[in-house]
Amino acid sequence: MATISLSEPDAARAVPPTARAVRLPTQWLGVAPFFLFAILFLIAPTAYLILGAFQTPNGAFTLNNLAELWQPTIRAAYWISIKVSFASAVIGALIGLAIAIAIVRGGLPRWVRSATMTFSGVASNFAGVPLAFAFLATLGRLGLVTIILRDIFGFNLYSTGFNILSFSGLTLTYLYFQIPLMVVIITPAIDGLKKEWGEAAATLGATQWQYWRMVVIPVLWPSFLGTVILLFANAFGAIATAYALTGSSLNIVPILLYAQIRGDVLHNPHLGYAIAFGMIFITGMANVFYIWFRTRSERWLK
Amino acid sequence: MTETYLSIQGVKKSFGPTTVVRDFSLDVGRGEFISFLGPSGCGKTTMLRMVAGFEEPSEGRIVVGGKDVTHLKPNQRKIGMVFQAYALFPNLTVAQNIAFGLRVAGMPKAESAQRVQDMLKLISLPQLGDRYPYQLSGGQQQRVALARALAPKPRLLLLDEPLSALDAKVRVSLREEIRSIQKELGITTIFVTHDQEEALSISDRIVVMNNGRADQAGTPFEIYNRPSTRFVANFVGTLNVLEARVLDAQAGSVDVAGQVLALDRDLAPKRKGDMISLALRPEAVSLGRAGARTGALAATIADVHFLGSVIRVRTKIGDSTVSLDTFNDPTMPPPVSGTPAELAFAPRDLMVLAD
Amino acid sequence: MKAGKFWAWLTFGLGAAYFIIPLLATMEFAMRMRRGTYSFDAFAVVFGDPRFQQTFGYSVVAAFFTILLGVLIVVPTAYWIRLRMPHIRPVIEFITLLPLVIPAIVIVFGYIRMYGSNSPLPFLGSARGTDALLVIGYAILALPYMYRAVDTGLRTIDVRTLTEAAQILGAGWGTIIMRLILPNVLIAVLSGAFLTFAIVIGEFTVASLLNRPAFGPYLQNIGANRAYEPAALAVITFVVTWGCMSVIQMLARFAPKSANRPD
Ligand SMILES: Nc1ncnc2c1ncn2[C@@H]1O[C@H](COP(=O)(O)OP(=O)(O)O)[C@@H](O)[C@H]1O
Ligand SMILES: [Mg+2]
């Protein structure tokens, strides 16, 4: 380096600093709008709430807000939310997986697959208020299925304790977008299962079940788990369907937070921050767990 | 040939209205290395998959070691199979892949570990047991696939174009390795390929398939030098084809573009006036010096390609083209295009093609 | 083999029933408005309701601006990352996935607290500002889908070679983006746009908390007060969503097949 620069000392000294000074910022300039946008409207608002969760109204540090989350109504809200999200995610993932396997590997005609994929694209986006209307029209007290069960099969759904406004009703409703979302995401993973793996296993003497246990399940497991976590977060933050279905009678976290934002029903603004923090914490932990799982036990993944 | 071990008897396979394999019969001796050779789509894979048990023949039987396995499930046939795309289980290490068949069979851990070590040594990758498939090159993956197939001591080894996905150099070294491992273990093997050089270089016998049929089965020497059909002759090696008219079937004399040629065989049932196709390998023809060889035809040199140690010459006899290679002899002047030349060959090298 | 096929049909059949029955039931319910006979009265009432027209129009406009904002943010970024800064790609991907982890209600809660009329950026001080914040929030919600769509589109063309070729021919950055990159990823951008539209059109949480007269809060309001109209609205929304997805499917057929990877 030194010997080379000796020949042209002035040029060597003058050029590199300017080149460096000009190059770095222009390169980052290209992504500056994105980062500005993300910081202002995604990261800062979230960080603001997280900080607020640890502050008193005067700005002093406290853990009281978090401690107050433990009060029965809030605790119950978290618990129901977790239950509904978990149940709809796991059941949705299992059913979605079964459907995806059926359309990819079941030897069904081609149109079945393309029709299912198109429909799944639609249904996974058919969430929110209209979905609640659809399920009220189906399984509400005057819904078509309720009436058919009652008039034709003599079966009174509501006498069994079923209620569309309950845990099981909400879960059943959420499945309407959870299952298709699973189908959309997991189908490519099932396409990735090579037919030859099954044939190789068969020539090596494996039964269908042994092949599944030793190859298919371990191979699909990371995608499966990742999608379950996504479905969980998807349901955990959803409010519109539940709100339209139940009004504010079902005490789930997003509805509680919604009421708190509108009217400070908890009489402590910073408790709202704590609830928001709790939501991020739970979905965040689910993702951390997933990342940890992937890096730790799946060394075969590239 | 030693005793018959695998016997394919009159097998036919149809998918709906299309018949993909027909009238396929073949006896394979114990320890024999057989290649199925043919263009893509001719039914090689389908025939192999029937032996493996993934397809059921529409007609005919498949017998292994005296036992009819036609309707046996693949996982009860004790067959080792190697696929074109390696098909290693991505979630298992090399050692676990090789141990798969042993684990499934319930072999004790220690014994299975020993066998995996032996197999790794056999494929000369003793250090790579703990790697995952994605950490291996294509050639290494295919060797692991071979070890995996061989570990449970199968009765038959089936390979479906195992070298097609590899680059040329690896392809040659691996095919020799496959052959030497096969000889060492003495395992009966069917090797599917569309590459004639591959088939010629490593097989005990080759079955040339055409449109679902076995056109000819024979040693590489027979297939190359005594092709029984026009298809086989064309598919294996380069071939010069001459159209000829029979002058005297019994004496074996024919007319090629106005020149009389004496063949050393009886051409019956062809009769005087019939057209026949004669084939000649480029290496069976030489320029000029007829010498001991008795066949000779006058031709015109059409063009000359200098290829280094060899000179490829294309000549015209009437409408037919005959290519031949001559060694580059620095002491001789090279052939000149447009000049007349005499083609010399031994009459018994002329093949009469069945249509 | 045969048994497998039976189970596949059974699984598919049960799934299809679960998804089709609510649609039929909703349609049937919507048609019950006139006593004793089926009619399209509920649809007529809905379409004749001026608030339906206003709120639906408002959401369409909001969706349009959301798409515009999303494209302006995402296309140059994704392009630049592919061209010059592939090493920060994981960071960008992580950020674009955050909206799937942070619930919308949390994000909008943050907006309400940060961008009030007394803050340095008083978005909420005026109606126009609130509209802008709504569009921004929607752009954030759509970010994962928009980024994914555009990035997939860029993957199929060889960005670097195309750009260098254009530069050799003397093209400036504006020309390169407008004439070269955008046309090539247009299909991908459009797919992202229609997905964004489907997400935005009936969105409830953000619009309701920002007090905007959008379609989502209107739906909720009708649901709380009427019997048959909600079912009609559900059918309409489903048709709109279906339309968006069909357009995306059709676009996918026109998408350029990968230039540098044969498949
Ligand atoms: N499952 C199947 N259904 C219908 N046709 C098939 C099936 N499998 C193979 N074929 C057809 O059979 C023919 C032979 O195929 P294959 O045995 O794979 O040929 P090769 O291995 O010699 O290239 C091809 O024309 C192929 O299209
Ligand atoms: Mg084949």
UniProtKB/TrEMBL annotation, chain A:
- Membrane-topology annotation of the record: Multi-pass membrane protein
Cellular compartment(s): Cell membrane
Mind listing the UniProt keywords for this protein, alphabetically? Cell membrane, Membrane, Transmembrane, Transmembrane helix, Transport
Matching InterPro entries:
MetI-like, MetI-like_sf
ABC transmembrane type-1 domain: which residues? 78-292
Q: So where does this one cross the membrane?
A: 28-51, 84-108, 128-149, 161-190, 210-233, 240-259, 271-293
- Pfam hit, one: BPD_transp_1
* Protein family (similarity comment): Belongs to the binding-protein-dependent transport system permease family. CysTW subfamily.
| Name listed for the protein in its UniProt record | ABC transporter permease subunit
UniProtKB/TrEMBL annotation, chain B:
Q: Where is the ABC transporter domain?
A: 6-236
Recorded GO MF terms: ATP binding
Q: PROSITE patterns of this UniProt entry? A: ABC_TRANSPORTER_1, ABC_TRANSPORTER_2
One Pfam match, given by its short name, reads ABC_tran
What is the protein's species of origin? Tianweitania aestuarii
**Which InterPro entries does the record associate with it?**
AAA+_ATPase, ABC_SmlMolc_Importer, ABC_transporter-like_ATP-bd, ABC_transporter-like_CS, Mo/tungstate-bd_C_term_dom, P-loop_NTPase, Transp-assoc_OB_typ2
The protein depicted here goes by the name ABC transporter ATP-binding protein
Does the keyword section mention Nucleotide-binding? yes
Keyword Transport listed = yes
Protein family:
Belongs to the ABC transporter superfamily.
The alphabetized UniProt keywords are: ATP-binding, Nucleotide-binding, Transport
The organism's superkingdom is given as Bacteria
TrEMBL record, chain C:
**Alphabetized Pfam families for the sequence:** BPD_transp_1
Q: Which CDD domains match?
A: TM_PBP2
Q: Where is the protein localized?
A: Cell inner membrane; Cell membrane
Q: Membrane topology per the record?
A: Multi-pass membrane protein
**What InterPro entries does the entry give?**
MetI-like, MetI-like_sf
Q: Which UniProt keywords apply?
A: Cell inner membrane, Cell membrane, Membrane, Transmembrane, Transmembrane helix, Transport
Occurrences of domain ABC transmembrane type-1 (ranges): 52-249
Q: List all membrane-crossing ranges.
A: 7-25, 56-79, 91-112, 132-150, 185-210, 230-252
Q: Which domain of life is it from?
A: Bacteria
Say which family it is in: Belongs to the binding-protein-dependent transport system permease family.
Q: Which PANTHER family match?
A: INNER MEMBRANE ABC TRANSPORTER PERMEASE PROTEIN YDCV
> Which named protein is this?
ABC transporter permease
Q: What is the lineage of its organism?
A: Bacteria, Pseudomonadati, Pseudomonadota, Alphaproteobacteria, Hyphomicrobiales
